[in-house]
Amino acid sequence: MAIAAPVIPLESIPGIPEQPDDLPDPVVPAAALAVPPDDPAQRLRDDVHAMLRVWDASIDKMPELLDKHYATLSTLLSQALTTLSASEAGALQHLVETLATIQAQGVQVSGSPYAATIHAKTPTGFAVSLTIQRTDGAAFLDALSNMATWLHQAGYTPLP
Description:
Layout: H1 30-33, H2 40-60, H3 62-68, H4 70-87, H5 89-105, E1 114-121, E2 127-134, H6 137-153, E3 157-158
Antiparallel strand pairs: 1-2, 1-3
Helix pairs in contact: 2-6, 4-5
């Protein structure tokens, strides 16, 4: 037969302070609880900045990729020359002259190094495409940011 111990309430023991039932809740500032307003223009600027960072990173890796694939490109060019020499002597001469020109003058690139096209819908429902080109990266980002802000304020919406 089991004997139960008597239950002694803690309040009845002298010298033991009363314990709170729970830990107090921390004070949370109202600003932390507020949800920031949704700003499509800011989202567009953030998306464009992210896209440009990826693009800049890929441009920076271009010389590395060319060095890495130089052997493959050389092999393909050699095979192309062999095939051309077997079938078309005139085409081979033209290819040799073209390659000599590229070697002497380099590859000419025209146009602005920074360009973007924004596709949007006007407030009246028409689709438009706006292109921004700049030679300077900072000027390009400023122009793109200003364009995104203006489009949002004018009531344009992004097209998928």
